[in-house]
Amino acid sequence: MKEAVVLYPSPTIGHLISLVELGKLLLTYRPSLSIHILITNQAYDAGSTTAYITSVSATAPSIVFHFFHATTLPPEFSTTSPHHTTLTFELLRLNNPNVHHALTSISENHMINGFIIDFFCTPAVTVAHELKIPCYYFFTSGACFLNFFLFTPTLHDKFDKSIKDFDAPIDVPGTPSIPPSNVCKPLQDRYDEAYKGFLDSSLKMQTSTGIIVNTFEKLEPRTIRAIVDGECVSNGSTPPLYCIGPLTSSSGHDDGRSPESLTWLDLQPRGSVVFLCFGSLGVFTVEQLKEIALGLERSGHRFLWVVRDPTNDKNQKAATALTVADLDLGSLLPEGFLERTKERGLVVKKWAP
């Protein structure tokens, strides 16, 4: 039987791209593998993935996508949580029968060497255990967030109040102290449904076959050592850690954009550049972009800054109407900023390789 690895991303483009790139990486080491990716519908509108999936299917024949029938949240489901992650956790829980069917179907013609899930897809751990398939977590962020994620149950047991109510920085093994306000918002309130989803995911991660993380040892040596030595899990064991980063997108983002940022970086003194890139949900109003620009200019530091489409509302995601070509950096940023900082800074539109 042909060997296979099954990947299960949460249904947003950023997590999908990360797992696809992980699949491509596996194929470079084991070209005979068959990579199967499970695709579910989104719990809320987080942007279309259709064009990206079509592109991957056309260029990577060893990667096969399995589309679930659309799952909808039942009318009786309600939540007081302000966080979209609550909807994602619930939708993925309801998808467990689809996961079971997909894994069983793939197993008919393949030997599944591993089932790799996004940390949002934690309900699927029970399916993997039931079918006796090795289940790995893939953590799309770096080790510094992973060690906090693993340490969350310890904080939960040690304190009886929410992180947002802490009056002192949080000491987490392997990282500098963290101000409570810097913790991602879904983890700040212990009574929030999103918090409960993250807590459950952390606990189930400790029962997995291994944790794959998008980083490399020389980037975060102290943090990785704390995880490997078991310092982040006080009441259990830490699964083996596999640092496979940095993953870089090999397709889907090219569309004519120049790799000028890499050429520019090669000309800068080693270790001298501040990199600003805030992800697909890290969007700002025009006023906020100008504040960042002024801060960069006054800092005197060299910088590489990825600027995305601005939004009219700082509490909403970016508008999707603008294309890369539509972005006029000169009008978005303070007058003369690009000229004044051209000797030590580079601003690129939308994405950097």
Automatic annotation (TrEMBL):
Belongs to the UDP-glycosyltransferase family. The keyword Glycosyltransferase applies. PANTHER family: GLYCOSYLTRANSFERASE. It comes from the Eukaryota. Transmembrane segments: none annotated. Signal peptide: none annotated. This is Uncharacterized protein. GO terms for molecular function: UDP-glycosyltransferase activity. InterPro entries: UDP-glycosyltransf_plant, UDP_glucos_trans. It comes from Eucalyptus globulus. Keywords: Glycosyltransferase, Transferase. The keyword Signal does not apply.
